[in-house]
TrEMBL record:
<keyword id="KW-0736">Signalosome</keyword>
<dbReference type="Pfam" id="PF01399">
    <property type="entry name" value="PCI"/>
</dbReference>
<dbReference type="Pfam" id="PF22061">
    <property type="entry name" value="CSN7_HB_subdom"/>
</dbReference>
<dbReference type="InterPro" id="IPR000717">
    <property type="entry name" value="PCI_dom"/>
</dbReference>
<dbReference type="InterPro" id="IPR045237">
    <property type="entry name" value="COPS7/eIF3m"/>
</dbReference>
<feature type="domain" description="PCI">
    <location>
        <begin position="1"/>
        <end position="159"/>
    </location>
</feature>
<protein>
    <recommendedName>
        <fullName>PCI domain-containing protein</fullName>
    </recommendedName>
</protein>
<comment type="similarity">
    <text>Belongs to the CSN7/EIF3M family. CSN7 subfamily.</text>
</comment>
<dbReference type="GO" id="GO:0008180">
    <property type="term" value="C:COP9 signalosome"/>
</dbReference>
Length: 259
């Protein structure tokens, strides 16, 4: 079961909890959801009417906190930490994990220096332990640690909740991808059609060559059978020549008798 499938059950649970509670009681739901080790998406919880009704109330900071976990990063939280509830250790870990996902959305090569700055990590060993134990082992990212180049090569990263206004950009990106895919498909179909045509032409050419070879064989055989001289006449001519040479030899022997 992948990370998305694991989350769906947890999302359903917290959505149901948020739907039957209201006011200050929702603060516990927010804390539990943002602390859960297998939950990394919060847009469904944010969409619950009871949660949205926290806006403008004494518990509105928990709504802002939930939005931070849906779209924000650790560095963004630090800039407004004085206006949000203080995080427990599990929430700190979760927000740092989400920060890695945000960085991986736009860059597939993440320098160690950038990661250490964004995650408040002081050394490479601590960073690599975090990436291995709290990111790759959990299943939210896959990649390769390159100690020589001091970077993390991202091969896969789970998606985060879309920020407000980001949906239009994603739709445009998908439209562009679909157009490119359609053009590529048409190009491939044209090349396949061209290859099929060339294959048929090659077969036709081979058949014509084979037919011409067979025709040439038949013609040569027919000419050989129709030769009026035949092999016997040739042997007769050779015999006549041999008789002529023998007569000359006997004549020479009569003119010079051995004395």
């Amino acid at each position: 079961m992948d990370i998305e499938e694991k989350q769906s059950e947890h999302i359903d649970f917290f959505v149901k909890q948020a739907s039957i509670l209201s006011g200050p009681a929702l603060s516990n739901v927010v804390v539990q959801a943002t602390s859960h080790p297998s939950l990394f998406a919060f847009s469904e919880i944010l969409a619950v009417p009871n949660v949205l009704q926290l806006e403008g109330t004494d518990s509105s900071t928990f709504l802002d906190l939930l939005r931070m976990f849906a779209h924000g990063t650790w560095s963004e939280y630090k800039r407004v930490a004085n206006r949000l509830p203080q995080l427990v250790p599990d929430q700190v870990l979760k927000l740092k994990q989400l920060t890695v996902l945000t960085l991986a959305e736009t860059e597939k090569i993440l320098p160690y220096d950038t990661l250490m700055q964004e995650l408040d990590v002081s050394n490479v060993r601590e960073l690599e332990d975090f990436l291995i134990n709290d990111c790759m082992y959990v299943g939210i990212v896959r990649g390769k640690l390159d100690q020589l180049r001091r970077c993390f090569e991202v091969q896969f990263a789970a998606g985060r909740d879309l920020r407000p206004g980001q949906l239009g950009s994603m739709i445009q990106t998908l439209d562009n991808w679909l157009t490119t895919s359609d053009n590529l498909l048409v190009s491939m179909q044209e090349k396949i059609k061209w290859a099929d045509t060339m294959g048929e032409m090659d077969k036709k050419h081979r058949k014509e060559v084979d037919e011409r070879v067979e025709e040439a064989k038949k013609t040569l055989t027919l000419k050989a059978n129709m030769d009026p001289r035949g092999h016997g006449e040739i042997f007769s001519e050779l015999g006549g020549v041999m008789d002529y040479d023998q007569d000359r030899s006997r004549s020479k022997r009569r003119r010079h008798p051995i004395g």
